[in-house]
Amino acid sequence: MLSKNLVYRQAVGWGSGLPRELDSAQTLVLAFAAPHYAADPAPFDQLAEAFPNSLLIGCSSSGEIAGSDVHDGSVSAAVTRFEHTVLRQASTPVADAADSFHAGARLAAQLAGRDLRAVFVLSDGLGVNGSALADGLSRHLGAGVVVTGGLAGDGSAFQHTWVLNGSQGLAQRVSAVGFYGERLRVGHGCDGGWHDFGPERRITHAEGTVLYELDGKPALDLYKTYLGDRAQGLPGAALLFPLAVRREGAGQDTLVRTILGIDEDRRSLTFAGELPQGGVARLMRANADQLIDSAGRAARQAMDMMGAAASGALVISVSCVGRRMVLGERTEEEAETVAESAPAGAVHAGFYSYGEIAPAAAGRRSELHNQTMTVTVLGEA
Length: 381
Fold this sequence. Notes:
With 381 residues, the protein is an alpha+beta fold. The chain is 20% helix and 38% strand. It folds into 2 domains: 2-191 and 288-380, no CATH class; 195-284, no CATH class. It is built from 7 helices and 27 strands. The strands form 5 sheets. Strands 14, 15, 16, 17, 18, 19, 20, 21 and 22 form a 9-stranded antiparallel sheet that branches. A 6-stranded mixed sheet has the order 5-4-24-23-27-13. A 6-stranded mixed sheet has the order 7-12-8-9-25-26, covered by helices on one side. Helix 2 (100-111) packs parallel to helix 3 and helix 5 (288-304) runs parallel beside helix 7. The radius of gyration is 19 Å and the shape is globular.
C-alpha cells in the first residue's frame, strides 16, 4: 500500500508533480478543494488525466487539510494505491432533503457485494439531510460495514457546495467509494470536545431538519437572544453555539447539530441533520484547548483499532467548520494533533465540513455528527 500527499495552488500548480506511477484500478484519489474550483476544474482534469484507471472522489471544503497543514484556496489530494483491496465507486443525485434516505439506499445498492468492508461517502452540504443519508446507507449495507465521510463545505458562506462527478463539481450530488477484501483494516474515531450550557429545552415543533420551536417559543428568537450582537452574523455565527439534541428516554445518544440556514419569516432554523420532535435540546460551547484535545482522542480511537496495519495507512480527517471558527489561528494545531498520532509513513488528508459521518463508537451504526472531529484510517494487513 503506497500513499502520497499532494497540494495544488493556483500560482504553482501541483508543485513537485503528480505521481503517475501510482495509477491503477486499486488506486484511490481523494481531492478536497476550495469552493471556487467548481468554476475552475483544471486541477481535477489534471488528476483525471494522470490517474485514468483510478477512482477520483472529492468535494468542496471549508478548509483543506494536508499533513499537519490547513490551507484555504487550495486542493488537498491524497493518492493511495492498495495492494489487496478492491475499490468500487458509486454516485447518485439527491433531489432534495426528503430524498436523502433513498439516496443512501441507492448508493448501498450500487456498492453491495461480497467482502465489502468499508464505505467513504461525500455529500452535497446544503441540500441533503445528512442524518437520513447515513441512515439509508447503514441500514441497507448492514452492521458489518463501516461508513464514514462528510458533507461538503463552503467556508462560512453556506451558499454553494459540490461533490466531484468525474472532474466536474456538482451540487445535489452524493458520491462514495466501497472497499472490498479481507486484508483491509479500518479504524475510526470521533470526539467533539463541546460542553453544555444553559437550560435544557423541549423540542416542541420540528419537522425533519427544520426547528421551529423550543419550549413553545420561536427557535430563531431564542438563538438571537443568546447570540446578542453576534446574531447579525447568522447563520455563520451560530457555529459558535451548536445544539446538543437527544431523544426522550434513558440511554439515548446525544448528537450535536449545526445550523445551515435561517428563515426570518417562519422564525425557524435549518440544521444539517434531523431534530427529534419531543426530544431535548441544549446549547453548547467550547474553547480551543478542548477542541484540540478532542481531535487527539478521535485519532487515538482510530489508531488503536489498526494495530500494525496503521503503518503506511491513509488517515482521513473530517472536522467541522464550526470548530475552525472557534480555533481561529490555532486551527493547524488540530491537524497537527491527528498527524502526530499517526505512525511513520502514514499519509494524512481531509477537510473542514458541514457535517461528519462516522460511528459514535466501535460496533455502532454510522450517523451524522456536527462540530466533531472524525478520523478514518485505512490500511492493509
